[in-house]
Amino acid sequence: MDLSSNCLTTLFISGLQLPIPQVNGRFFHSRGEVSKRCNNAIAMAVRITTRRVKTAKPLTAMATALITLAIFMVAAAPGTAFALRPVSRRHRILRHLRGILWNPLFRPSHDSLLRQNEEIDRLDLPRIQDDTELEALKASGDLVPIEESESLKVEPSLDPSRRFCRPWTRDFVQDLSEVYYRQFHDQIQVNSAVRTVKVQKKLRRRNRNAAPADGDTASSHLAGITVDLQRRGLTKDEIRFVEHYLFYLNALGLVEPEEESRHWCFHVMVSERYSDWRQTQTIFPHSPEEDPASAPVAAPVITTTASN
Q1: CA 72 to chain centre
Q2: DSSP 3-state assignment of 148?
Q3: Domain over 104-304 is classified CATH 3.30.1180
Q4: 52-79 residues labelled b (16+ CB within 10 A) or e (exposed)
Q5: Which of 124, 217, 225, 245 could pair with 299 as two cysteines, CB 3.0-4.6 Å apart?
Q6: d(CA 293, CA 241)
Q7: Is 110:217 a contact under the CB 8 Å cutoff?
Q8: Contact of 143 with 137, CB cutoff 8 Å
Q9: pTM
Q10: What SS3 class is residue 67?
């Protein structure tokens, strides 16, 4: 073999170092070149396996030789699973375009994670470490269940023990689901709610985009003030409706939303201030004839009442 070391990729098969020809990071595709390399490789494999035949039992030696030759011929041939090719330029362009076309109203950011954690620190809420702490918060009433209704459903795969959140977060979910149902006669779905640090670490091992379990940018799910709402499958009008609803509350400093592209959901952290604001509002349903696309703000129509 006259190939230089920088043009070889070494494949370890049955304890043998079998070189696969490579030039400038790409495998040979020329029919004549491949044929020549395959013949050389087969000859080398024959020499190696012949040595073993002399000292091994006949049947075992023959089986080893045939298996080694078959695997090596497949590995050396182009267009096989072993002939890995670089990512194409077209694939890189399409991946870049997807990033450009994904332009949500609430793009996830480092600053958003900081704001979510600042709210948790302001309220002096604990990051729930494990199931023991989770159950204690349920028993004390600090976490309340998210219950399905005519306007609200929960992702079936969500663990029943984690279908809980803070009371003001539940109020937000119920309010949004009721207004959404009046507008579209369909349900809002909750995909995720409270999590423990243990669950978040496990999730982060599977999803590199998941927020960390500690630090200034830790997931706000750990405090029970955040829910993920299903975005996948919604129409443009339905997405616009939810975005405008969140935009209105975000402008008041009551929620901190993000639109996640990996899981296609609305990640919404709800401030405790939502409870006080809610007491001053009267929510009326939209008229059935109203077109959601033409509404200036797709949020509940509200009027301010006198405070007690």
Answers
A1: 38
A2: coil
A3: no
A4: eeeeeeeeebeeebeebeebbeebbeee
A5: 245
A6: 8
A7: yes
A8: yes
A9: 0.61
A10: helix
* pLDDT string in tens for the chain (308-residue length): 444 433 333 333 334 444 444 444 444 445 566 566 656 766 666 666 555 545 545 666 677 767 776 776 655 554 444 444 455 666 666 665 555 566 788 888 999 999 999 999 999 999 999 999 999 999 999 999 999 999 999 999 999 999 999 999 999 999 999 999 999 999 999 999 999 999 999 988 887 778 888 899 999 999 999 999 999 999 999 999 999 999 999 999 999 999 987 778 999 999 999 999 999 986 544 444 444 444 444 444 444 343 44
Task: Compute the distance between CA of residue 271 and CA of residue 256 in angstroms, rounded to an integer.
Answer: 8
CA distance 147 to 166: 13
Cα 147 from Cα 154, distance rounded (Å)? 8
